[in-house]
Design a protein that fits this description.
By secondary structure, this protein is mainly α. It has 2 domains: about 1-35; about 40-175, no CATH class. The protein contains 9 helices and 4 strands. Helix 4 crosses helix 5 (about 90-100). The longest helix is centred in the N-terminal third of the chain and has 20 residues, at about 1-20. It comes from Rhodoplanes tepidamans (Rhodoplanes cryptolactis). This is EF-hand domain-containing protein.
Length: about 180
């Protein structure tokens, strides 16, 4: 009797697994159907710090990363790092920016100090686009979508695949485009 029950249990389990892998059981709506893809799972970057930080500044949590959202986030980071509240971040305060977000871990102070005065003004920091846009905003609309993160739609004026991306300088964590942070 135990042998018969064990055999029936195995058959039932195998049938259920087969129905799920084939997209569901016929005549049973919802059985084995998969939920819609999670936009945050699509955007999960693995070990890329630029993509890793993007969900932190997606203010409305829609999975589309915009320049306005980036500027709001950069403002918060700048304000946190500007310890003496003088509107500038010096070399010592810049360490706070590096610790604030994975995408700034290897950031270079000079990349942001446009006028080379030894300090970064709020505008110098906030107006600098995230490397995410340089790498993924192929149509230049200041919005990075899930499709752009997956590399879809590159043929529309983007210049091609990864080997065709522009180089903006050496080193840093900008990935294949060489943004120095």
């Amino acid at each position: 009797m135990r042998y018969v029950l064990a055999t029936l249990m195995c058959l039932a389990t195998a049938t259920a697994a087969s129905a799920q892998s084939s997209g569901g059981a016929p005549g049973l709506p919802g059985v084995g159907e998969r939920p819609p893809p999670d936009i945050r799972a699509i955007n999960r970057p693995g070990t890329d710090p630029v993509r890793q930080s993007a969900p932190a500044w997606d203010a409305n949590r829609d999975g589309v990363f915009t320049c306005d959202e980036w500027k709001q986030y950069a403002t918060r980071i700048f304000n946190t790092a500007d310890l003496n509240r003088d509107g500038y971040v010096d070399g010592k305060e810049f360490d706070g920016i590096r610790r604030a977000d994975p995408s700034f871990k290897n950031a270079e102070f000079g990349y942001f100090d446009d006028n080379r005065d030894g300090r970064i003004a709020r505008a110098e920091f906030i107006e600098r686009k995230s490397p995410l846009f340089a790498r993924f905003d192929h149509n230049g609309d200041c919005r990075v979508t899930a499709e752009e993160l997956r590399g879809e739609g590159r043929g529309r004026g983007s210049g091609g695949g990864p080997s065709m991306r522009p180089s903006l300088g050496g080193g840093g964590m900008g990935g294949s485009i060489g943004v120095p942070f």
